[in-house]
Specification:
It is a single chain. The protein has about 350 residues and is of the alpha/beta class. About 35% of the residues lie in helices and about 15% in strands. The chain has a six-stranded parallel sheet with strand order 4-3-5-6-7-13, with helices on both faces. Strand 8, helix 8 and strand 9 form a beta-alpha-beta unit. Helix 7 packs parallel to helix 8.
Length: about 350
């Protein structure tokens, strides 16, 4: 633990605070603390001055514990109650167990402060590495993930060459879903769950895929069919569909940006007397465990979570062991995008004379 003197109570000082004070990266502070070479005298002096000013000290026992490999890795996710993250957590725990690792799950609860704490808090000294799925951090926070321990990024909020990253096919998946609805005869397709102005992130990328499919089919985008929802729960899907119906807008197809939204959309449409898929075809995203048990069962995009979990755990394990993971690119880090598949069930009308795999 790093402690700051002064005052009646000592306060924990993080390496991140030292980096900010010195105007350098966290990795540079780590290099100075560990007496690594290739740090200029001027930089070393600046970091040491920041260390002295803030009263930063290194807990040697905690650092040595990490270097000795505890067999414990951390998984930071926004919300363990959401089916997507619950399923991802279970798969990562299962994959880690296969290779002798235990997993500490840290829900960050849609909080930027909690996401930063997961990266830079003192608990990182007690784990060998971190699998990190941020939601509140974004493209401007690349420097935050330049850390001095093994880390694997998940999701689409941050893209950087400074860390290993396992991503999913958000654009391709949403485009596939929308194209399927178009080929099944849908002309007026709604997108539920968009985040206006978002470009990087699951919502922005899935919305991009939806727009690309419309463009390629020659269907003009109608802004009234794009419904905003910051959160992606069942209740949000109900609200979004009710919002459309209250305006007299009845889509014949819906691309919901996750399965929870899709479940809410289906409920609201059915309560209003619409039949699925006869009156309205609905596709979700994530292939959550519950999606097949809706009535009718939900057509959805499977992002390949089992493969995501396996790749993330194995890349992290290689880094912990001081090895070079399979698939390292020119940057010296791994970037893998896991293929998605369309799982066709009863919530969408079939495509005549076309056989769909999935």
């Amino acid at each position: 633990m790093k402690m700051s003197g002064g005052g009646s109570e000592a306060r924990s000082v993080t390496m991140r605070e030292v980096a900010q004070e010195a105007g350098v990266s966290i990795k540079t502070v780590s290099n100075v603390v560990n007496n690594f070479e290739f740090v200029s005298d001027a930089t070393r002096l600046r970091v040491n001055e920041a260390i002295e000013k803030l009263g930063y000290t290194v807990n040697a026992s905690a650092r040595n514990l990490r270097r000795g490999n505890t067999g414990l890795i951390a998984l930071a996710i926004p919300d363990i109650a959401l089916p997507y993250f619950a399923q991802l957590s279970a798969l990562i725990i299962s994959e880690a167990k296969k290779i002798g690792l235990r997993v500490l799950v840290e829900p960050t609860s849609y909080s930027r402060a909690s996401e930063l704490e997961a990266l830079h808090g003192s608990q990182r000294s007690l784990t060998d590495g971190l699998i990190y799925s941020p939601l509140e951090l974004g493209p401007d926070d690349v420097a935050e993930v330049d850390v001095d321990y093994p880390i694997v990024l998940l999701g689409e909020r941050i893209f950087t060459d400074a860390a290993d990253h396992i991503a999913t096919e958000n654009i391709e998946g949403a485009k596939h879903a929308t194209s399927y609805l178009i080929r099944s005869g849908c002309k007026r397709i709604a997108a539920i769950g968009i985040h206006p102005g978002e470009v990087i992130g699951s919502a922005g990328l899935r919305f991009q895929g939806y727009r690309e499919a419309l463009d390629e089919a020659g269907i003009e985008f109608d802004p009234e069919l794009a419904v905003e929802s910051r959160m992606w729960r069942r209740s949000d899907g109900v609200r979004c569909m009710q919002e459309l119906l209250d305006k007299g807008i009845v889509p014949d197809g819906v691309v919901a940006l996750n399965d929870m939204l899709a479940a809410g959309v289906m409920h609201a449409a059915q309560m209003a007397g619409y039949k699925i898929p006869e009156d309205m075809s609905i596709i979700g995203f994530d292939n959550s465990d519950d999606s097949q048990y809706l009535s009718p069962p939900l057509t959805t995009i499977s992002p390949g979570l089992r493969t995501v979990a396996r790749q993330a755990v194995r890349v992290l394990k290689a880094r912990i062991n001081g090895e070079i993971p399979e698939g390292v690119g020119p940057s010296g880090h791994v970037f893998k995008k896991i293929s998605s598949t369309l799982v066709v069930r009863g919530s969408t009308r079939p495509i005549e004379n076309e056989s769909m795999a999935g």
